[in-house]
Amino acid sequence: MNLCDANTVKRLMSKYSTGTKKGFGQNFLINEDIPYNIANESFSYHKEKNKGEKSAVIEIGPGIGSLTQELCRLYDKVIAVEIDKTLIPILDETLQEFDNVSVINEDFLKLDLDEFLEKNLGECLISVCANLPYYITTPIIMALLENARKENGASKLTSITVMVQKEVALRLCADSKSSDYGAITASINYYGVAKKLFDVTPDNFLPPPKVTSSVVRIELYDEPKYKVQSEKMLFKVIAGAFSQRRKTLLNSLSSSFGEFSKEQIGGVIERLGFDINIRGERLSISDFCRIADEFTKELKK
Ligand code: SAM
User: Fold this and answer.
1) Low-confidence ranges of the chain (pLDDT < 50)
2) Which residue among 92, 132, 208, 249 has its CA within the 20 to 30 Å range from the CA of 233?
């Protein structure tokens, strides 16, 4: 059965008395080349990193299973997390030929990701691959990044290959100093490198979304590249720096850090050699780490 044939999608939906739900961001792929290419982009990087462990992939939102099938053909183990319970009997049918897949009917954002990875994929090398529901792209990526590291700093995840709206993809992959650079870009840069792979136009989906999509692969560093005393402080600095984009770094951070006076924050900015009128988008991830370490020191004074 070709799961990327629009009539097959409609027939399966009607057979199980369900339909596509906008509220869950359901836009199903109807061009079989696309799930094939996404799965291969995910696996080719995974293979490079694999030192003989079992290979595993987590898919968020399998829908009716088109990308899942491709992942099952490549990885030893596939865990697919789908929020919509009406799709579970469809997935039982479309994935019946594979014995290396488990489908979990859950809201991905409500999973205890640490416990989930430990319980399901203990000894495996793990990647994430998904055609993400667009309404929760950023929280999903942030949840993955925040859980990407073990206590010793080594990465639990190899890469995150996702389809997102093109404008979001540009933000994920932006260079510092560009207008697309923001809090999510800086956060990604702390954990790894994001690469935009290819665009997918709306006519490749049922129903077609209003915008073009892009596939991005976030390749995670095996070991932390940047050292920072407190990651919590780092992410507070990043969030603060971009909280009011039109303001200077000094004013944005002053609004977010009530525990410091404006003079203290100005002192840190100047001590690190930045112009006092600099804006957050001019700073690289290593600049943010230096500011976070100075703030941590200030707190101890
Ligand atoms: N993978 C399929 C494809 O490429 O054709 C479907 C992708 S569709 C854009 C997004 C999928 O994510 C839908 O199946 C939707 O029900 C599911 N989804 C939405 N929110 C979710 C959540 N919080 N947790 C898990 N799955 C979710």
Assistant:
1) none
2) 132
In sequence order, what are the beta bridge partners of 170?
none
Q: Please report where in the chains the tokens 């692969």 appear, as a residue.
A: 217
Pocket residues: Cβ below 6 A from ligand 1: 24-29, 60-63, 66-67, 81-84, 107-109, 131, 133, 136
Quote the pLDDT of residue 299: 83
**66, 149, 248, 276, 301 from 266: Cα distances, Å:** 53, 33, 11, 7, 16
- Answer for the pair 165, 200: CB distance below 8 angstroms, yes or no: no
Q: Is the whole model's pTM more than 0.90, yes or no?
A: yes
Alpha helices in the chain (DSSP H): 6-15, 33-49, 66-74, 88-94, 113-121, 137-146, 166-172, 183-191, 231-241, 249-256, 262-271, 285-300
CA of 26 to the centre of ligand 1 (A): 6
The amino acid occupying position 188 is I
Per the listing, tokens 């200077």 go with: 248
